[in-house]
Design goal:
CATH class of the largest domain: Mainly Beta
CATH architecture of the largest domain: 3 Solenoid
Helix content: 10-25%
Largest sheet: 10 strands, parallel
Radius of gyration: 25 Å
CATH superfamily of the largest domain: Hexapeptide repeat proteins
Number of helices: 6
Structural class: alpha/beta
Shape: flat
Length: 323
């Protein structure tokens, strides 16, 4: 598979500085690219890697044009990383690696389910009764879509995704637990991508909702009755407990935990490994991580933290007495 630079620019735009007939046989990072590769630079701090790269052509922003030209051909685009993303899509389309439309013979699809003719249902998938799969949506292998759950258009669900398992709902009954039947479903909007082995539980009474454009990484747990706003992105191993609402255009770092029955507003960015225990309504970047240290020092610091509340009270008393 190969493209020439002229066809890339014709499809994606940008300003080409170099020979349009140059053949490109691959896409590679700056440090390993060879003469047949197209690479990109999105962060100026990697300028030295650019200068030393053997890539046949490099995608750069306007501010890096002169530096790039000093080493060879380049494509100048306002947003190099976005250009790179679209380049990967073009490359995959041209190479013919798109998912096959239709239902794999090993998939199990209920007669009461609705699967759009343009959808792709991979090996060993299960689509239960009343479920609906939208146009141009791709379910990779071993995806399960539970009864009455809806997956919108142009979605991608990677291997092992489970949509619509029961939420974790139990009422105490003496020294035992009584199951609360989960009577809601899961509603997934358009252009959603869900990583491998991620689970989204059905709602107890109302539906769990994943709005348009949401991107979820691998191994994420979304509890029952959660609502995630449009174009929010969450990294791997994050978890959201039941009945929490996350607004649009948020980011959640890997391993972060969001407790239940709280609200996260729009444009909130949560750092990796942070535990969110209360609502956050103001846009911004939030972090709650106790830094790693050798164990003895960590234990001393943890012991000191336990005394902060009483220390605060002592300081308040001293301040009051000195007034």
């Amino acid at each position: 598979m190969e493209l020439n630079l002229a066809s890339v620019v014709e499809s994606l735009g940008g300003a080409l500085h170099g020979d349009g007939a140059m053949r490109i046989t691959g896409i590679a990072p700056l440090e390993v690219a060879t003469a047949g590769d197209l690479s990109f630079l999105s962060n100026p701090k990697y300028q030295q890697q650019l200068l030393g790269s053997k890539a046949g052509c490099v995608i750069v922003g306007p501010s890096m044009q002169e530096v790039a030209l000093a080493r060879g051909a380049c494509i100048v685009a306002d947003q190099p990383y976005l250009y790179f993303a679209k380049l990967t899509q073009l490359w995959k389309h041209k190479s013919g690696h798109s998912a096959s439309v239709g239902i794999h013979p090993s998939a199990v699809v209920s007669a009461d389910a609705q699967v759009h003719p343009s959808a792709s249902i991979g090996p060993l998938c299960v689509i239960e009764r009343g479920a609906r799969i939208g146009a141009a949506t791709v379910l990779k292998s071993r995806v399960t879509v539970g009864e009455h759950c809806v997956v919108g258009e142009r979605c991608i669900l990677h291997p092992g995704v489970v949509i619509g398992a029961d939420g974790f709902g139990f009422a105490p009954n003496g020294d035992a637990w009584e199951k609360i039947e989960q009577l809601g479903a899961v509603q997934i909007g358009n252009d959603v991508e869900i990583g491998a082995n991620t689970c989204i539980d059905r709602g107890a009474l109302q539906d769990t909702v994943i709005e348009d454009g949401v991107k979820l990484d691998n191994l994420i747990q979304i509890g029952h009755n959660v609502r995630i706003g449009r174009h929010t992105a969450m990294a791997g191993c994050a978890g959201v407990a039941g009945s929490t609402t996350i607004g649009p255009h948020c980011t959640v770092g890997g391993g972060a935990i969001i407790l239940g029955h709280i609200t996260i507003g729009a444009h909130v960015n949560i750092s990796a490994a942070t535990t969110v225990s209360k609502s956050i309504l103001k846009p911004g970047h939030y972090t709650g991580i106790f830094p790693v240290d050798d164990n003895a020092a960590w234990e001393r610091n943890a012991a000191t933290l336990k005394q902060l509340h009483s220390l605060r009270d002592r300081i308040k008393t001293l301040e009051k007495n000195n007034q």
